[in-house]
Amino acid sequence: MSAETAQPEPAIPGAVKTDAIHRLRRVGHHGLRIVTITTIIAIALIAMGFFRFTDTIADLKAVATPGEVDAIVALTGGYQRIDQALALLEEGVGERLLISGVNPATSSAALRRATGTKTATFDCCVDIGYEALDTIGNANETALWIREHDYTRILVVTNNYHMPRSLMELSQASPDVTFIAHPVTHADLKTDAWLTDPVALRTLFMEYAKYSLARVRNWSGAKTASGLRADIVDDRPVSAGLH
């Protein structure tokens, strides 16, 4: 048989299959390394962001004299926030107080009894907002109240971990208004004790996640619900629902 007429030997099926498996394994190992490295980097970035967030809120302090403010807004989430806001109002800080996001089943009288505040204070200077369902709703409910009274400087009372997101949403809803933080603090984040408290860790991490998502939403310009009860329950015109 001449060289010109010689036929190539057929490939052995088993060898072809083995070679294909080796190639798939190499691709799989390469992909796994990429996924592992990406996961490690993502976890590191999240951890760095989280501890930066906790450092930021640990540095938040309520000033002894808030200065000249038109009014106070307390974002519901605990009676301690409302107690501090009412105490500030009775000390002469601001002319009115909005308690935003109150459950419709809670009356003004019930709030007054729970906080031990004078009836005269509630009657003259406290507005109760029943419309807000979340922090975005707090911001929109507050914006309606601010426009109604033509305020420009507002003292914000809420928990320290909730303050960054609250200020961001309030500024989005009322960009021409100055908001001053008056954080309510439950735990000293300057020490490492909170790292061993699973409740504190969960609360802080959940708030960090919400804050991060809110920043991404604002950066992207994505639209979101108003967070107001009137927009969710039915088609009534949106109002602050202040009583």
Question: What's a concise summary of this model?
Answer:
With 243 residues, this protein is α/β, with parallel strands linked by helices.
Account of the 3D structure:
There is one protein chain. It contains 8 helices and 5 strands. By secondary structure, it is an alpha/beta fold. Strands 3-2-1-4-5 form a 5-stranded parallel beta sheet, sandwiched between helices. It has helices at residues 13-58, 79-90, 108-115, 119-125, 135-149, 163-173, 198-220, 229-233, and strands at residues 71-75, 96-100, 126-129, 153-159, 178-184. The protein is elongated and about 85 Å long. It starts with 12 loop residues before the first helix and ends in a 10-residue tail after the last helix. It has 2 domains: 13-59; 71-184 and 195-233, Rossmann fold (3-Layer(aba) Sandwich). Mean pLDDT is 82; it is low at 235-243. Helix 6 (163-173) runs parallel beside helix 7 (198-220).
- Overall geometric form: elongated
Instruction: Count the DSSP helices.
Output: 8
Q: For the largest beta sheet, what order do the strands appear in spatially?
A: 3-2-1-4-5
Return the structural class: alpha/beta
Distance between the termini: 106 Å
Mean pLDDT: 82
The beta-strand count equals 5
Domain module tally: 2
Low-confidence segments, given as residue ranges, are 235-243
Using only C-alpha atoms, the radius of gyration works out to 29 Å
CATH architecture label name of the largest domain: 3-Layer(aba) Sandwich
Helix residue percentage: 40-55%
Q: What is the CATH third-level topology name of the largest domain?
A: Rossmann fold
- How large a portion of the residues is in β-strands, by DSSP E? 5-15%
CATH class of the largest domain: Alpha Beta
What summary fits the major beta sheet? 5 strands, parallel
Helix-strand topology string = HEHEHHEHEHEHH
